Structures are given as C-alpha cells and as structure tokens.
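user: can you give me the structure for this one chain? tokens are fine.
assistant: on it. calling the predictor now.
[tool input]
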Amino acid sequence: MPDVLTEEQRFQLSGYQRNEITEHHIYLNLAKRVHSREDRDVLERIAADELRHYHEWKSHTGRDIAPVRWKVILYGIMALIFGYTFAIKLMERGEDSAQENYRSLITIVPEAERIAHEEQSHENALIDLLDEQRLRYTGSMVLGLNDALVELTGALAGFTLALRDTDLIALTGLITGIAAALSMAASEYLSTKADEGSHKNPVTAAVYTGGAYIITVVALVVPYLVFENYYFCLAFTLTAAVLIIAFFNYYISVAKDLPFRERFLEMAGLSLGVAALSFGIGYLVRIVLGVDV
C-alpha cells in the first residue's frame, strides 16, 4: 500500500471500492433474473469488470469493504418493476462525476485512468448490447399511452362540463376508454402483423398497447370515483395526466438515452391542449342543445 496516499485519499479510494463491489453484486443479482442468454452474459461480464476494479482499489486501501446491501436490493426491485435496462442505465448515470474523480488521482494511482476509461467506454458499449423485450415494444406503449392521454383527457374535460355528474362522467369515461383500448390493441395487432419487416410479435405488441391504454384510463377516471366536485376531479385528472407523461418520458429518456424535456413538453402540450378544447366544446354543446343533466 503506497505511503504517498493521504488519509483523505484512502477514504476516497475506499468509497470507490465500495461502489465497485456494490455494483458487482447488483449486476450479478440482475443477471440471475434475465432470461436472455446473451443479456445474461453481458451483465456477468460487467460484474466481472466491477470486481476487478474493486481488487485494484483494494491493492491501495489494503482492506476488504462490504457492498451497500440496500442499493443491491433497491436496484433489484427497480429492475423487477421497470426492467433491468432502466435500472442499469439509471445507476450508470450517477457515475460521470466518479469517473472525473478517478482521473484526479492519476498522478498517485496510475491505473485510475484505465479504470475511468473502462467505466466510460467499455461498460457503456456492453450495456448498449442489452436487448430487453419490453424496450422493443416501447413504440407500442407510447402509442397506447399517448392516445389514451390525448383522447381521454379531452373526453373527460368535455364530459365534465356537459354532464356535471361525477358518477356519470366516470361511467362514460370508463366505457369510452375501455372500448378505445380494445380498438387500439386490435389496430396494433393488425399493423404489426402486416409489417413483414417487424421483429415484434403482433399479440405482444397488442397487449402492450392495450395495457398501457387501460392503465392510463383507470388512472384518469379514478378521481371521478373518489370525489364529488367534478371541477376538482378534472383538475386532479389533468394533474395525473401530466405526472404520467413526466414519469413515462423520464423512463424512456433513461432506458433509451433520449432527450426528456422536448418529449415531455410535446406530449403535455397535446394532452392539455385537447382537454382545453374539449372543455369548451362540452360547454358549447350544453348551451346550444339546452341539455341540463
């Protein structure tokens, strides 16, 4: 163990060492859950790299360090819910500053530059090889989610002012939403089946499209089943729509390395714009037709 290292530098290296062994266990844990042989091999290779880096830092600190168990568990849960590609890329996003810190130690620990390079290029290249099924069907999820948000926020806004009864609005919204979900799923099935160059399974694509649609429908209609003030319900629904858009676009931006802000603003603008227009149409229809429910 070199004597030139200060206590502060040893403490810093110990932190890097802990990160490496933690990520080693995270990758191994994820590899056990992956069905694809190719993806499992990729995760195991990265896990081996992390373990090698751990031992290289250990040669300078001279001590064994345990992984952060709660992080291993947390990323395992995230992978189960959102997919292992999302969990891995979210974890790797936090390593940029660590790589810069590695380079600051080059004069004292020569291998720090190589480790930083491997973290930045080699592991990123391996991660890009991952081919998770749910990400192949992102287009189908976007189709179902976007159509549900635009169509149902608009419909609920129109129903709110035209019907002015939360139970009736919820009933109408659920019927409209479920019918539209089935229609979208059928359309996606036929579209995927007709696309001979597509590698997607038509049934799976239809399930992702319809599933995303129905989940969105339920989230948007729930306020009308819980509260009595229909204006409050509409405000709650629009807020839920914006949160769904934000969450989904963040998921896509992490998992597929796409920009977040532009996609979020576009989807939110479309949904809220259609809702505002439909709200006005609902008001005009009630006034013109003289219908008072």
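assistant: here you go. The mean pLDDT is 80. The radius of gyration is 25 Å.
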